Amino acid sequence: MLDVRRLALLRELDARGSLAEVSRALGISSSAITQQLGKPEAEAGLQLLEPVGRTVQLTPAAKLLARRADEIAEVLERAEAELEHRRSRVQGVVRFAAFSTFALRYLPEVLRRTAASHPDVVVEFTQVEPFEELAAVAGRRADIAVTDEYPRIPRRVEGGMTRIRLLEDPLAVYTPGPVDSIEALQELQWVLEPEGSDACTWAHRVCREAGFEPRLRFESPDLRVHHALVAAGEAAAFLPSMVFSGPWASLAEPAHRFAWPIEDDGELHRDVYAVTRRGGELRPAVGAVLQHLRDVTGD
């Protein structure tokens, strides 16, 4: 009998292309992954991995199994949902993952509403970066993940997942002092998210399209650091409106907001989505938390 969790590893290797990428996404050593993937070979009686240089790749038989892994996961999700529907009360554990600014703004209210409406549902939360969230859902480490997407930089959502758009989060440029032209922005120091992130790629593109290259001096994935550097007069930054709202951890909006050229204004936002495994949203406990996510982001 093939082990479903090992099939999921095959699927991850097929999607990510290397042991190193699977290791980084799942937080498991490459040697442990190789050891786990050796067992399905014995179960299937076929070679599933073949060495290529210092790594391995899937054989055609392994690729077939990897494609079937999504179908198997969906069947299991639906089976779990059917069992939960037979219970007299909605109950169970829902593993929720999100990036920090979303969690600071919305997580406390989601927890409060879930406890009030479904006291037998336990929400477990893990903070992860946006690029890690889809892997958390695919790897069954999260039932729901909240991720963001920037204009013209789509995130690849695999066939075994569904996503629900929660909100559009406007972004604006904040500067250390008064600035009245695009040319003046080029003279400022900037803080951006780390190189290679979607946020950094997007920021560089909108700046170039506006006619300047930002003088990058600081990098941080934490937007509270960006806010602090703007407030201290050290850097300019793109900040989302999400960090300025909410009753628990909102920040004061900096005094100097730059008026971006109106013809480019449609680029200054990010879309925020909730992602689940296909069929997972049918579980009553997961559905309850998803509804609260819709409600709090729509308020």
Please tell me how large the radius of gyration is.
22 Å
Q: Structural class, from secondary structure content?
A: alpha/beta
Taking all residues together, what is the mean pLDDT? 90
**Fourth-tier CATH superfamily name of the largest domain:** Periplasmic binding protein-like II
Could you walk me through the main structural features you see in this protein, from its secondary elements to its overall organization?
- This protein is α/β, with parallel strands linked by helices.
- The protein has three domains: about 5-85, Winged helix-like DNA-binding domain superfamily/Winged helix DNA-binding domain (Arc Repressor Mutant, subunit A, Orthogonal Bundle), CATH 1.10.10; about 90-170 and about 270-299, D-Maltodextrin-Binding Protein, domain 2, CATH 3.40.190; about 170-270, Periplasmic binding protein-like II (D-Maltodextrin-Binding Protein, domain 2, 3-Layer(aba) Sandwich).
- Helix content is about 45%, strand content about 20%.
- The chain is built from ten helices and eleven strands.
- It has helices spanning about 5-15, 20-25, 30-45, 60-85, 100-115, 130-140, 180-185, 200-210, 225-230, 285-299, and strands spanning about 50, 55-60, 90-100, 120-125, 145-150, 160-175, 190, 215-220, 235-240, 255-260, 270-275.
- The strands form three sheets. Strands 3, 4, 5, 6, 9, 10 and 11 form a seven-stranded mixed beta sheet that branches. Strands 1-2 form a two-stranded antiparallel sheet.
- Strand 7, helix 8 (about 200-210) and strand 8 (about 215-220) form a beta-alpha-beta unit.
- The longest helix is centred in the first third of the chain and has 26 residues, at about 60-85.
- It is globular.
- The protein starts with a helix and ends with a helix.
- The mean pLDDT is about 90.
